[in-house]
Every structure is written in C-alpha cells, then in structure tokens.
Amino acid sequence: MSNANLYQMDCSAIVYPYFATDKIQHSFTMEADLDREIDPAQLKTVVQRLCERFPTLFVRLHREKFGYKLEHVHDVTPFIMPRPKFLNMPYDLKNNENLIRITYRGCRLAVECFHSVTDGNGAITLLKSIIAEYFRELGEDIPNTCGILSPEDAPTTAETEDSFRRVFTSAKETVSRSGRMAFQFNPDGPFAPWHQTELSMPLSEIKPVAKALGATLTEFGVAAYLYAFYQTEKGRTSKKPIIMSVPINLRPLFDSQTLRNFALYFYASVPQGTNLTFEDVLENVKKEFKAGTDKDLLQRMINTNVAQQEMAFFRALPRVAKGTVLRIGAAFCGEAQFTSTLSNLGIFKVPDELAVHIKTFHAVLGQVPKNHILTTAYCYNGTLGFMFSSRLQSREIEHNVQRLLRERGVHATLRDNETGAIL
Question: What sign for the dihedral angle of Cα 78, 82, 83, 86?
Fold first, then answer.
C-alpha cells in the first residue's frame, strides 16, 4: 500500500477508535433539505468527482502494530447510501467500514462522520461542496465562495495538516487535564432510540434578548441549556455541579485551514446555590467563557495534547496497550467531567446562488457513553436552531429551554427532526 494513501491520526482523532464499542461511538451528522428530490446516481457522480479533493475525509481505519492511521479510499460507492431510520449508528470498525456516510432521502442530504475523521467545520465544508457540485451538474453557476471547494483544485497541505502538531510550542507549557466530576443527568428510564428534537426561532427575536443581557448568542444559549438542567434538578441531593462542555473552533485563533479535527473544549457550569435565577447562571457563564477561551490557555491545552501523545513511552506501546491507557484516562478526564455538550456551529453560509436551493440546515450529535442528551446550535437563513439529540423518552430539558425563551418574547418552536411534527 502506498504511504500516500495513509494519514497519521491528528491529535484529537487518536482516541476515538479506542473508545468505540459495537453500540456507541463518537460521530455526528450535518444535513440540509434541498428544494428538490435527490437523484442517487447524480449524487454518486458528484461525490466521486470530489473524492480526491477531500483525501483525509474519504477514509477508513488502517491498523498497525502501534496504533491506527487513516487510509484514503478512492471509490465512493460504499460511502453513499439511503438515509437510515436512526442517525449516527455505530460504524463496523472491525471490518474496516468507511468512516463517513453520505446519505439521502427525499430532499434531505447528509454527511455523517466518525469523529476521528474531522470535526463540524470539515464536515460542513464537504456538505457545502457536494451541494454546490450537485447543482453545477444541473447547469447552475455556483461560485466557489463561502468555504466551497472545487474538485478542479488539488488539496493543499494546509487542508490536510494536523494543526495541533503545527502550532505546538513546548512540552513544558502544559495544563492539568484532571477536573471535577460532573452531575450526570441519568433518569432511570424509560429510554428510547437515539432521536432528535429541533428548537427553532427567528434570529431577529433572540439577538436583542441576548444583547440586552450583555451576552453573545453562544453565552446565552449555554446559560439557557444549563438553567434547563438546573430547573429539572433543583433540590437534588447530588453535590456534583452541572457542567456543560463547549467546543471551540481553533482555526480563526491559530490561522488554520485544516479539514481535520482542530477544536478544544472548555467547561461552563451552574454555580452552587438553591435559588438561582437565569441571570445568575448567565453571569457565571460569561466569566467562564472569558477564562476558557483565553488564547494562552488554549495554547497550553494544545501543548498538553501533543506532548502526551509524543511521549516515547506512549508511542512505544502496542495498539492494544494504548487502548487500555486511553480508556483509563477517559474515566478521569472524559465525559464524567461534564453533564452535556452544546456545540455552536455558527452561521451556515453559502453563496446566494446556492441559498435559493437550500431550505434548511441541521447539525446532529451522535451518542456517547455517559451523557444521555447532547445539543448543537446553528443558524441558517435567519433562523437559529438548537438540535437536542437524546435517548430519553422525556423532553423535559427541551421544553425548559423553550419556556425560558417564550417568557422573553421569543417565538421558539419544538419539532421532531424526522417527522417535522410540532411537539
């Protein structure tokens, strides 16, 4: 096999194959509803044209004695499939299933990724590029703007690099990865298959509400989500704090164009107290945002990730032993440190020539072992959406967020993501 087909795992991707089980894996989906039904044959033609443009995304796992690499796959046929009943189902890693899925049903087109491949930024770039090329195939003149990549261009080193290793500065300038154990929202059940509920609202209504409180939309959204848990668990006997994991896209801070993983996380929490208002929670979140997004701190966190993986001891461990070490570490530094995640993907931007063909955009997180509900936020065409992905029958958290917004004059609507039914 040519080494040109193999890519070293980036410093974020390396953990996910070791954490994966037959039932739960770390994955996510970016999806869009188009203005027409998708033709599978045309979709395959378009995706094949883009395959060599995204060599680090059209991949499968390659096993070696001391770990994993990503192997570029040149035939896109097995990547493309009808949309399944449930999103983000486990990949068959033992039999080298390809690590992204391009799915379609009716007018809905989606890119689903195993997290070793990329983060939300890379998946969005691929989704937009597929849609743009699809409509070019129909004779439309779609410009390569707003992050759309052309199949006529070769992939650049900047797009395929591991940005963590590039911006690494010193193994001495690191931070501790241990932290508090968080409250786990873990009702006894009944549990349901992994499902998604979207809370959507006009951007023009929520922006002034957040601005009046001196908060960004992300700060407001994280505080609202935290407060929803606080309302549900007020008076709880657990002494563990409610903590939210918030991903940070590092590209603008460190001048990166990579299509691979390049994000870190910081934690926002509900302070201890039995009679907190939403404003109390928001003020605490704003302080934690300022501290958690400090560039010097993020640099030290990058240094920590790279330094730990480059240790001679760790590199010399066989693949099976690496898995044992990483799983032990995850028990103390993984999902036990937060109650849930809120990932803000920002504005889904496309050129006007393409926007007329895209009705909606959604981002959906897949299951993780400990957290029973996860959330994304995104904005498209003047609408802000929160997508709650959950295995809980109850939608109490979702309704708590909706109630808070409505009390502040925001017309927020809850819908089932599969059926569109209002809840």
Answer: negative
385 has a pLDDT exceeding 80: yes
Instruction: Spell out the domain ranges in the chain.
Output: 3-153, 191-416
* Tens digits of residue pLDDT in 308-340: 888 766 777 888 787 777 776 666 667 778 999
SS3 of residue 286 by DSSP: helix
Fold for domain 3-153? Chloramphenicol Acetyltransferase (3.30.559)
**Torsion sign (Cα): 267, 272, 277, 280:** negative
Q: What pTM does this model have?
A: 0.94
- Residue 236 pLDDT grade (very low, low, confident, very high; cuts 50, 70, 90): low
User: Which contacts (CB < 8 Å, 24+ apart) does range 303-312 have?
Assistant: 303/168, 303/169, 303/170, 303/171, 303/173, 303/174, 304/174, 304/175, 304/177, 305/11, 305/12, 305/164, 306/11, 306/164, 306/165, 306/168, 306/171, 307/168, 307/171, 307/174, 309/11, 309/14, 310/171
Find out whether 356 and 35 touch, Cβ atoms under 8 Å.
Answer: yes
- Please state, rounded to an integer, the average pLDDT across all residues of the chain: 91
